[in-house]
Amino acid sequence: MRRSPKQPLIGLSRAAPLITPRQPNEDAISLETHPFYCDTGATVHISLDNDFFNLRPVSSRIVKGVGGSSIRAIGIGDIKLPVPRVHLLLKDDLCISVSTIRLISVSAITRDSKVRIAFGDDEDDCWITNTSTGALIAAEYSKPPQLQN
What we know:
Blueprint: E1 7-10, E2 36-39, E3 46-47, E4 54-64, E5 70-81, E6 88-95, E7 102-105, H1 106-112, E8 115-119, E9 126-130, E10 136-140
């Protein structure tokens, strides 16, 4: 079963709308208003133009979306996710400057970054762990997890 991109994992913003208009001269896009969403159906990462530390132009790369919609990517590059204590890299992220959300492809990040992404029973529960150490890298919960005694 495919999960919808409802897990705002990086940025931890619970109230971020999925569609937010960008202003033409907007300098920085906040993680609070535009968090990264884990998407099990995405085959590539998608982000905005100000996220990349290396961005290369691409020729006419079309990304297909819901209901047959499509949008053109203007570049491809890498992004260092702002995660405390680790460097989590999104490789070959597509730059779509008019995108209103940022997507993390679960299949791409687990392949490229040696992490595991898990989802809880609640559709909003999601966490990333290091596959080597099992250490928690980032998490988002609809309710605080219960501590075991």
